Amino acid sequence: MNADVLIAGAGPTGLLLAYELGLAGVPALVLDQALHPDEQPRANGLVGRIALVLAHRGLLDGTSLHPLAAPRFPFGPLSLELDRLEVDPLHVLPIPQRDLEKLLHDAAIGVGATVRRGHEVVGFDEQDDGLTVRVHGPTGEYRLTARYLVGCDGGRSFVRKHAGIAFPGITSDEVARMARVHMPAAEVVVADGALAVRGVRLALVRPNRTATGSITITPHAMLDPSADPDVYILATSEPRPPHLPDTLTLEDLRASIHRVIGADLPITGARWLRSTVANSRQAETYRVGRVFLAGDAAHLFSAGGAALNAGLSDAVNLGWKLAVAVQGTADGLLDTYHAERHPAGRRAILHTRAQAALSSSGENAESLRELFAELLRYPGPSTHLAALLEGSDVSYGPGPLVGAWAPDTLDEHLAAVLVEPLRSGKAVVVDNTDDGRFAAMTGPWRERVDSVEIPGACLSALIRPDGYVAWADGAPGTLREALTKWFGTPRTPIRAAVPPGIAVRP
């Protein structure tokens, strides 16, 4: 085999997947058709649990980055006032996508991944023991063999199409026009969460709806303190015309702004102009045989903030499972990827489509916005929607403990114990018994599972490499079943139960 796992696409999802595989001892090969990383600004940060996951992995060490609780956050055209809640459930990590990709690229290379740019997957065929993948590179076409192929190659994914996976959903009837624009400070006043210019007052960050569309404006310095204070990230949304030009000009953007707000803004220049039509789609399956989908190849959303949270969470879920499959046997383990992440993607589609409905035009949508605004005065609805945006409503088990994300569920002492194992990408058994019986059982899986003995702790638990609880406070036999389910048949024989009073730490 040329590679155990071949990843198509060197965006954030593909690079994080390569890092997760490398942590588990499986160096991945990443191919991307572009010769260089995309310099055009896209996402301006991470929203949701993935910000905490990257911190737990240690990927933010040595940087000035750390997850922040969001005091307020847009939900469509409305604002969740989260600083009024007792506990703010939504986290953000301000980082431009190009900086995120650089961070993840360096991390993946550091654990043994190889990234080839200018190499595009153009075909593949599956055999019993792997795949033959056809690649077009700078010097022509060649072939690679791999055990598994993961399509992280975007919304127009070749891997998804070639695998014959349907991608049902809807295409928006609106077009968004976006740019980084420059407006002189002398003409702009920013105060109290709003921007005032030439008699026009616009709320910052969230969409400002008018009869003809909407406009969203955010000072770039709010997302990047080093940015020029006269630069703003601006986007308009209007009904999609029958024919949409391939490129967006500054005059096109100015005309769109005038149609939406009935006035001109003092824009003296613009960069990174582009127009997009939103899609809301989800692949029918995230796996066909030895082929998997993750990120935008698996799902597209009609509102911002969800794509990277969902895609990077796909990578964290899939990476360690592929590594287990490569290194041993784990019957049915790879099927849990679709079983767990497809419903999570569906939840993200649910709230992004709801945001799109709130942002639409017409009297029905106006009534919906008015009613939602009333509901958001209460802590319950705000907390629920913030959990949707965070992704903390996702559980991978019957609950309330098994299937939950451990750092959210365990007490502070036990959560602190998980810091080092989660940083290394290994699972961990927390053992609260006096004789270390649960820790002793991890011996045959020592390459994949650490153990920590804390006699008298509130519970014993098996925490997966992605931080989710796989087993809690059961009999020794049920722990052995859980270890086998999630980490495969051990390479060494399972030892007999350790006699009471003997503590074993692999």
Automatic annotation (TrEMBL):
PANTHER family: BINDING MONOOXYGENASE, PUTATIVE (JCVI)-RELATED, TRK SYSTEM POTASSIUM UPTAKE PROTEIN. The keyword tRNA processing does not apply. Keywords: FAD, Flavoprotein, Monooxygenase, Oxidoreductase. Residues 3-349 form the FAD-binding domain. Pfam families: FAD_binding_3, Rng_hyd_C. It comes from the Bacteria. InterPro entries: FAD-bd, FAD/NAD-bd_sf, RIFMO-like. This is FAD-dependent monooxygenase. Transmembrane segments: none annotated. One of its GO terms (molecular function) is FAD binding. It comes from Nocardia bovistercoris. Its cofactor is FAD.
